[in-house]
C-alpha cells in the first residue's frame, strides 16, 4: 500500500515559463494594495484602465439581454453574426476598411487573449519574433511562452519611435516569422502615418513576415483620423490586426476584442482559440453591438474629458522635471526623466515614497524606456489635482 510522504510535493514549472515572470502590474498592484492597507493612500497613475463608464445604452443593452432566461448558455466560438456585423460596420465607418463579417473578423475575449492565440497558432521553437523596444511587455511573454526566439527592434525618440526598416533589412531575417507592431504606440504615444504603414507592408512582403498590428489606441486624443493597417493596399496578404473596446469604449473589464484579416489565417487561429474558451457571454456581445454603433459624439465627449486630464498630468510630470514629448496619442503621457535621476525606476520610487503617487517606470517596456516614465490619464480630475499638489509639496526638485 502506498503511504503518504511527509515531504511536500514539488511540481516543476514547465520550461516554457523559464524566462517569463509574473506580469509587472500584477506584482505592482499587490504592492500598492499593501501600502494602501497600511494607510498610505497611493494615487495610482500606472495602469490604463478607464475609470469612466461605458455609454448608458451599452449598460442598458447588457441589462436587457441578461434579463432573458436564454441568454446565459454557451455561445459560438466565432461570436454572433450581429457582433461580427457590428465590428465590420465599425471598421467601414471609422477606417474605410471593408471586412467580410463571416470570415475576416474573429471576436476575442480581449485583444491580449488574441496575442496569445496568434502566438500559439503560428510560433514554435526555431522561429524568431520581432518585438518593439520599448513595447507592451506581453509581446515578449507571448513569444517566450510559445518557445520562439525574441529579437528586439529599436524605437527611439530621434526616429519618432518608428523602426528603422532599412537597418532591419540588413540583418538576417531568414527565421523571422512574425513582427509585432503597435500604432498609435504604447507606451510612447507615437503615431504612424499611412506612408510608413505602406513601407511596413512592403517590408513584410519582401521578407515573408507576418505582421500583427495591435491597434487599441487610435480613438483617444488623436488629432487625425484613426488608421487601420488593413487600409494599406496589399496589407491583408501579410497582416493581421487586433483591436479592442477596452480603451475606446471604456470596457476594459468586459473583455471584448477582435482579430481581423485573411480568412485562412483566422481559421487557423480559431483552431487554437476553440480549444481554449467556450465563447463570449451573449449579453456582453449584445452590449458590444450597442457600443460599436456609437457615433462621433461619444468620442468627442470622451476626449474632452481626457484633454482636461492631460493638461493636469503634463503639469505634474513637468513639476518633477520630466519632459513630455508633444503630440502623443492614447491614455498615457510618456516623459523623459531629468538628469538628477538615474532612470525611470529611480524617479518612480522617489515620487512614490515622497508624494505617494505611482508613475510607471519606462524600463518595464524595454531598455530604450529606461530614461522615461509613463503616467495614466485614468483618474478623475479631482484625484489628478490632488496628485499634482502632493508632488508640488513633497518632491525636492520642485521646491528648489
Automatic annotation (TrEMBL):
It is an enzyme of class 2 (transferase). Keywords: Aminotransferase, Transferase. PANTHER family: AMINO ACID AMINOTRANSFERASE, L-GLUTAMINE--4-(METHYLSULFANYL)-2-OXOBUTANOATE AMINOTRANSFERASE. Its EC number is 2.6.1.-. InterPro entries: Aminotransferase_I/II_large, LL-DAP_aminotransferase, NHTrfase_class1_PyrdxlP-BS, PyrdxlP-dep_Trfase, PyrdxlP-dep_Trfase_major, PyrdxlP-dep_Trfase_small. SUPFAM superfamilies: PLP-dependent transferases. Its cofactor is pyridoxal 5'-phosphate. Residues 41-391 form the Aminotransferase class I/classII large domain. GO terms for molecular function: transaminase activity. Pfam families: Aminotran_1_2 (PF00155). This is Aminotransferase. The keyword Transferase applies. Belongs to the class-I pyridoxal-phosphate-dependent aminotransferase family.
Amino acid at each position: 500500500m502506498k503511504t503518504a510522504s511527509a515531504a511536500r510535493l514539488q511540481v516543476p514549472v514547465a520550461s516554457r515559463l523559464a524566462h517569463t515572470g509574473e506580469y509587472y502590474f500584477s506584482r505592482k498592484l499587490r504592492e500598492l494594495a499593501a501600502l494602501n492597507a497600511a494607510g498610505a493612500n497611493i494615487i495610482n497613475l500606472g495602469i490604463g484602465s478607464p475609470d469612466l463608464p461605458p455609454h448608458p445604452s451599452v449598460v442598458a443593452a447588457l441589462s436587457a439581454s441578461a434579463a432573458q432566461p436564454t441568454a446565459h448558455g454557451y455561445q459560438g466560438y466565432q461570436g454572433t453574426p450581429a457582433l461580427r456585423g457590428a465590428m465590420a460596420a465599425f471598421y467601414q465607418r471609422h477606417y474605410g476598411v471593408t471586412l467580410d463579417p463571416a470570415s475576416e473578423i474573429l471576436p476575442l475575449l480581449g485583444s491580449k487573449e488574441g496575442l496569445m492565440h496568434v502566438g500559439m497558432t503560428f510560433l514554435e521553437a526555431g522561429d524568431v519574433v520581432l518585438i518593439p523596444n520599448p513595447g507592451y511587455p506581453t509581446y515578449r511573454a507571448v513569444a517566450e511562452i510559445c518557445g520562439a526566439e525574441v529579437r528586439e527592434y529599436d524605437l527611439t525618440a530621434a526616429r519618432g519611435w518608428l523602426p528603422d526598416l532599412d537597418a532591419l533589412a540588413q540583418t538576417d531575417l531568414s527565421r523571422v516569422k512574425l513582427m509585432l507592431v503597435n500604432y498609435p504606440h504604447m507606451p510612447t504615444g507615437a503615431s504612424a502615418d499611412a506612408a510608413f504603414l505602406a513601407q511596413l507592408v512592403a517590408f513584410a512582403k519582401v521578407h515573408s513576415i507576418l505582421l500583427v498590428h495591435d491597434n487599441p489606441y487610435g480613438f483617444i486624443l488623436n488629432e487625425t483620423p484613426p488608421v487601420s493597417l488593413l487600409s494599406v493596399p496589399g496589407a491583408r496578404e501579410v497582416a493581421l490586426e487586433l483591436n479592442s473596446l477596452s480603451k475606446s469604449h471604456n470596457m476594459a473589464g468586459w473583455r471584448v476584442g477582435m482579430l481581423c484579416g485573411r480568412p485562412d489565417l483566422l481559421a487557423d487561429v480559431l483552431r487554437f482559440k476553440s480549444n481554449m474558451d467556450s465563447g463570449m457571454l451573449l449579453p456582453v456581445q449584445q452590449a458590444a453591438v450597442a457600443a460599436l454603433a456609437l457615433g462621433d459624439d461619444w468620442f468627442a465627449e470622451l476626449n474632452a474629458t481626457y484633454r482636461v486630464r492631460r493638461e493636469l498630468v503634463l503639469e505634474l510630470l513637468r513639476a518633477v522635471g520630466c519632459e513630455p514629448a508633444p503630440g502623443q496619442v492614447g491614455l498615457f503621457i510618456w516623459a523623459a526623466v531629468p538628469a538628477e535621476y538615474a532612470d525611470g525606476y529611480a524617479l518612480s520610487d522617489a515620487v512614490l515614497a515622497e508624494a505617494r503617487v505611482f508613475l510607471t517606470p519606462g524600463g518595464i517596456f524595454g531598455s530604450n524606456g529606461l530614461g522615461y516614465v509613463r503616467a495614466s490619464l485614468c483618474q478623475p480630475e479631482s484625484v489628478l489635482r490632488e496628485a499634482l499638489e502632493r508632488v508640488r509639496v513633497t518632491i525636492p526638485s520642485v521646491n528648489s
